[in-house]
From TrEMBL:
<keyword id="KW-0597">Phosphoprotein</keyword>
<dbReference type="InterPro" id="IPR003661">
    <property type="entry name" value="HisK_dim/P_dom"/>
</dbReference>
<feature type="domain" description="Histidine kinase">
    <location>
        <begin position="238"/>
        <end position="409"/>
    </location>
</feature>
<keyword id="KW-0418">Kinase</keyword>
<dbReference type="InterPro" id="IPR050428">
    <property type="entry name" value="TCS_sensor_his_kinase"/>
</dbReference>
<feature type="transmembrane region" description="Helical">
    <location>
        <begin position="153"/>
        <end position="175"/>
    </location>
</feature>
<dbReference type="GO" id="GO:0000155">
    <property type="term" value="F:phosphorelay sensor kinase activity"/>
</dbReference>
<dbReference type="GO" id="GO:0005886">
    <property type="term" value="C:plasma membrane"/>
</dbReference>
<keyword id="KW-0472">Membrane</keyword>
<keyword id="KW-0812">Transmembrane</keyword>
<dbReference type="InterPro" id="IPR036890">
    <property type="entry name" value="HATPase_C_sf"/>
</dbReference>
<dbReference type="InterPro" id="IPR036097">
    <property type="entry name" value="HisK_dim/P_sf"/>
</dbReference>
<feature type="transmembrane region" description="Helical">
    <location>
        <begin position="21"/>
        <end position="43"/>
    </location>
</feature>
<keyword id="KW-1133">Transmembrane helix</keyword>
<dbReference type="InterPro" id="IPR005467">
    <property type="entry name" value="His_kinase_dom"/>
</dbReference>
<dbReference type="Pfam" id="PF00512">
    <property type="entry name" value="HisKA"/>
</dbReference>
<protein>
    <recommendedName>
        <fullName>histidine kinase</fullName>
        <ecNumber>2.7.13.3</ecNumber>
    </recommendedName>
</protein>
Amino acid sequence: MNIFAKLGNSIEEVRIRTMRIFALIALISSFFVFFAFSLRLVWQEEAQTEDHLKSFQGIAEQVYRLSPRTRLEISEYVTVYYGESDFTEQLRALAPIALNSVDRLNYEFKFSAEHFIQPGVVAYHFAFDYQGNNIQTYITINSFKMDLWDDNWNVLMMISTLLMMFLIIVLRIALKRVFDRLMLPISDLSHQLREQASENFTVPAHSVDELKQLTDHLNQYSSMKDRVAKQELMFAKYASHELKTPISIVLSAAELQAMKPDDKDFQAKQRQRILSATNGMKETVEALLNIVKQENASTESIVTVIDEACIDLSKYQQMLASGVTLSLEIAPNTRLNMPLTLVNMVLKNYIENAIRFTVQGSITVRISSERISVCDSGIGLHSDTTIDHGLGLIIVSRIGKSYGWQSSLLNNRDVTGQPGCLALFEKQC
């Protein structure tokens, strides 16, 4: 019979299978203990029987010297034969027995009308001299009446049975503790994963350390998944807004062109609006494609030489408040590991944010191989000044992660002691 029949690999089925294996181990262990003790007991029984029979040697010899005879009943079960004349059929089956030795006749099954078991006989053969004659003497005992058979074997059976029960109980308790500490928390964690009942996965305090570490990692991955999902949603939201705005400009300019077909200045102005919006949309699409391309590439060597001819700040001049100046400083031999479109995307978000919150003073753009900074003299960081213009900080941060840069906003007062905000885009080591 297969003890593993119809059992799968669920935790409960594994528990049942393991319990059956432990029960089988307990049964086999008890059998081997019983077998080993049985051999020991049989050997001990033989030795004690021999000593027991030899202990009657002096009595048998002394009684015969007092009154010679052919047979002596020492007790109900111990008989002494002087010579072989009064031997029973069993003893005749034993003869000849070596001098000063013990021999045994095993049990005989007599399936006669009475259907009984013929007990065995153990005999000890020795000899002594009496009046010039050598008297061959046999001391016999009935095997059924040996004390060892009645007591020790019962004790042995009891010990083996108790040992088997003890092993089953101990192994069951140990197995239950193992499953409580290891398997049940895994089952509970599996249920949480399947049902998604809570935001954070939990396991009992008594769980093993590795399972706690696994749970912590699952919670981290879950949080990271939610965070990435939110970032992707915001990314799509801002990208959609950045693309919808120039499309709306193109559509409105095209409709306005149809209204004044003969006005050349008006037509030129609308064409310029269309070109400007189209170029902006092209730059946005290129920026998005470059981000995705870099995120999907394991390694890619990009070197962009930056000089004043590459950076055009003229389009921001008309956005400045009255009296605010915008200046650009580029360090010699500046080289960046990202496309120019992404550099312009970072500058666009930083500069437009600075323009938005600067009503007087100046805005300074500094670019080097290790850092891009936009410093303004505006109102500085405030709880209501979250950057949400264009692709905003989400895209700037995304660009930084893709190319090994970090974006941060600081109060200028904390750095230089002057009012305003400092936007930093720094290369990581």
